[in-house]
Design goal:
mainly beta; elongated; 5 helices; 792 residues; single chain
Length: 792
């Protein structure tokens, strides 16, 4: 029976219910009939024999006087407890329930037995028996005691002492269940004057101690200690003379340790990591986390190697109401590798890496964003397994964004880590200025957007380019009575270019003409699509045929340097673009018709979509698209994409490009995932067979296979693996001397993860050496305690 139901039937069971002092009025003098030294209201009526015996023990008038006086004392005692020290006119909201209630007049003690409940606000006590010593202001609870404090922490104990202000005192055989999920068990405990709970011979764990079925289980990890102090105000636990145990086995002695039970950050040592690699030997890394403030922290780390000098690491983070900033740096002294001779230098030099980024909100429209990544040399990141990127970018930009305009002034610089590329040929873009404005007032029923752009590109040992352009675009979109969507676009643009040192660019397609060049661009486009919806296979299908006509007068493109439009390739995402080049330096001219169809089927748990399309050029003249891009002839290649998704269990994407003449696959890209979050398989395959000339280094053909998977077993265990394989052969790239199946990197591991711990071991093999980042095996151990903040 629920407690509310029991309270409703208290009259029939002689139960005393005092809720917030309101029920005190039901206590009448006639309700108390008990011995002189103890007043009670039993759960069952007293027997006639007991009543007769009580009457024989003393005179009737004495018994009546004692009953009346002790009843008044009980009522006064309960009233005193409920009122407490509250100010006049604001009584404490105390709830009090029990099966029986006794009052000892000599000791001025109230005794409650049977399903006792004391409740004040969010705090409550449940027990089999509660004794309240009024003169001492102490409350003692015994038998299956459960105490809940104002923060939601729960204490289970065989015996518990409280003050009359509802503050805990001494505890016996206790279990403290923290609101955040942690558990503290101890033989004895005592609440100190400052509100802390001091425990003796205690154990702590952040893991569940029962299964989903309610059966007890051994926690994955626990910390035992001779003395434990818990501070509920800061959610911190301090251990003295303790041990860390994993799966029941003592592993690490802990003379002193402090942690946070709420999972929040706390200053202290972090769990170290261990790795073994061919380049560095055995690596042991550890760090100290320093919580500077609620919005700032600092992590200082060290890496010690058996085959290399030690390395230092630092990470700083800061968050404010205006933005955020973080920076990470590595520093060591070791021998570098010459990027051209591949030989290790004899002397040791400083080597390091800096990565930082941040954003600052100036006001509701203006913001500044910046980031930098700089390495001391080209092999440092791979040597110390920090990153496998082969280019590092530094950028800064100042932006203004509002409802109808966008402005940015930015700068970009790139550091190459490729051993076969000269840094002097890598461009620096500074400044880049771009402004766009959309006018809400319609012009001829359409929307007008203005744009201005300026860019300066410099190289230390290469071609320099400066450009400025301005454009105006008009666009109108209408829906006909039959449902066709018609869109008209008009564009006017003017460009000015200036180029120096064109002779330092080896590829003639990218050079342009030395000096000043100008260019004018005009475009008109009509785009018509017709969405058709209906039912199919118990779902809804949408079929959208689409036709686009674009016309542009002849443009002199070859005299303009090509800096940002080199990686041109026909795909389904740019088939209907007004300019299918990725940048501004090249613009597609002539007249063309593009046609295609989109289809989508949606039904419960399923979603299938596909598209296919092609374009036809009306003009035979074409000199700006390289061979193999799919756009070099009048008819383009056929491109498309298919996607299939079933719940969150199956996801398949297939992108293709077919040769217009023989339907040979020029691009095949597959990404597939099947399985759940715990057990799954992923595969990715890319093959570019476009017969692009080797002079176009930005568009090389290649073939690659990626695979990964994980299998979960035995509740918390899993095995996982992944591989990256280069399948490019000499037919696709004559410069290579490969077999067509060359693994780049493989990985295999075993992991254990439950609600509170994550540990694993991973073996990885790299098949490619780059400078002092040697090919070979790497073994890494990972260990994390979840939802736990450690401190020293």
């Amino acid at each position: 029976m629920r407690r509310a139901e029991r309270s409703a039937q208290s009259a029939s069971t002689n139960r005393v219910s005092l809720l917030g002092g309101v029920a005190l009025g039901v206590l009448t003098i006639s309700a108390f009939a008990a011995p002189a030294m103890a007043q009670s209201v039993p759960a069952e009526p007293a027997s006639p024999r007991d009543t007769a015996q009580q009457s024989a023990d003393r005179p009737a008038d004495e018994a009546t006087q004692a009953n009346e006086g002790e009843a008044d004392g009980l009522e006064e005692a309960v009233n005193d407890y409920i009122d407490g020290d509250s100010p006049p006119g604001s009584p404490r909201a105390i709830g009090f329930e029990a099966d029986t209630l006794e009052y000892d007049s000599q000791g001025d003690t109230v005794i409650a037995r049977g399903n006792v409940l004391l409740q004040e606000g969010d705090r409550s006590v449940r027990a089999d028996e509660v004794r309240w010593d009024r003169p001492a202001g102490q409350i003692e609870a015994r038998g299956d005691v459960r105490y809940v404090d104002g923060d939601g922490n729960q204490v289970y104990a065989s015996q518990l002492e409280l003050t009359d202000k509802f503050e805990t005192g001494a505890l016996e055989d206790l279990l403290l269940v923290l609101r955040e999920g942690g558990r503290l068990a101890a033989e004895r405990g005592q609440r100190t004057d400052d509100g802390r709970i001091a425990l003796e011979r205690a154990a702590y764990t952040g893991c569940p101690v029962v299964t989903d079925d309610g059966c007890p289980k051994q926690p994955s990890w626990k910390i035992t200690a001779e003395r434990v102090v818990y501070n509920p105000d800061t959610s911190r636990v301090r251990f003295e003379n303790g041990y860390f145990s994993l799966f029941g086995q003592r592993l690490v002695p802990l003379p002193t340790l402090e942690l946070r039970t709420d999972g929040g950050p706390s200053s202290g040592l972090l769990v170290p990591s261990i790795r073994i690699s061919r380049s560095n030997g055995l690596e042991v890394s550890g760090s100290y986390y320093w919580r500077l403030a609620d919005n700032r922290d600092l992590e200082l780390g060290a890496h010690v190697f058996t085959e290399a000098p030690p390395m230092a690491r630092a990470t700083y983070r800061e968050l404010s109401s205006k933005g955020a900033f973080q920076a990470t740096g590595y520093a060591t002294y070791s021998r570098r590798v010459n990027p051209f001779t591949q030989l290790r230098q004899g002397q040791q030099d400083f080597r390091g890496y800096l990565a930082a980024n941040g954003r600052y909100l100036i006001d509701r429209n203006w913001q500044f964003t910046g980031s930098t990544r700089i390495a001391s040399d080209r092999t440092f990141l791979r040597r110390y397994d920090i990153s496998r990127d082969d280019r590092l970018r530094t950028m800064a930009e100042l932006e203004r964004i509002d409802a109808d305009s966008y402005f940015v002034i930015a700068g970009f610089a790139t550091q190459t880590l490729r051993l076969d590329q000269q840094q002097g040929q890598v461009p620096v873009a500074l400044p880049l200025v771009d402004y766009r404005r959309r006018f809400d007032e319609p012009l001829l029923g359409g929307t007008v957007t203005l744009r201005g752009n300026s860019l300066a590109i410099t190289r230390q040992d290469g071609q320099d380019t400066q450009r400025a352009l301005a454009s105006a675009q008009w666009n109108v979109r209408r829906v006909t009575g039959m449902g066709q969507v018609v869109e008209l676009t008009g564009l006017l643009r003017g460009d000015v270019y200036h180029t120096d040192n064109t002779g330092l660019t080896s590829n003639l397609r990218y050079r342009g003409t030395e000096g000043w060049e100008t260019r004018g661009i005009a475009l008109a486009a009509l785009d018509v699509s017709w969405p058709l919806a209906g039912e199919l296979f118990g779902g809804t299908q949408v079929l959208v045929p689409r036709l686009q006509i674009v016309g542009t007068p002849p443009i002199t493109n070859t005299t303009i340097p090509n800096e940002d439009s080199r990686a041109i390739d026909l795909e389904d995402v740019n088939l209907f673009s007004l300019n299918r080049f990725p940048g501004d330096d090249r613009f597609e001219d002539g007249a063309r018709v593009t046609y295609g169809v989109d289809w989508e089927l949606t039904k419960p748990d399923w979603r299938v979509s596909a598209n296919i399309g092609q374009s036809y050029r009306l003009d035979d003249k074409q000199i700006i698209f390289p061979d193999g891009t799919g756009l070099s002839d009048k008819f383009s290649d056929i491109v498309g994409r298919t996607r299939v998704r079933y719940k969150d269990f199956v996801s398949l994407t297939y992108r293709f490009r077919l040769d217009k003449d023989n339907l040979a696959a020029r691009r095949t890209e597959i990404d597939a995932t099947i399985g759940s979050r715990k057990t799954y398989a992923e595969i990715g395959y890319l093959r570019l067979d476009r017969n692009i000339p080797l002079t176009n280094e930005d568009l090389g053909d290649r073939e690659e296979l990626r695979a990964a998977g994980r299998i979960a077993f035995a509740d918390y265990w899993s095995v996982f693996g992944s591989a990256v394989v280069n399948m490019t052969n000499r037919d696709e790239d004559p410069r290579l001397n490969t077999s067509g199946f060359d693994p780049i990197r493989t990985r295999l591991g075993v992991a254990y993860q439950d609600d509170c711990i994550d540990l694993g071991i991973t073996w990885r093999r790299d098949f490619v050496s780059q400078g002092d980042a040697l090919r070979g095996n790497t073994i890494e151990l990972t260990f994390r305690l979840l939802n736990l903040g450690l401190g020293g």
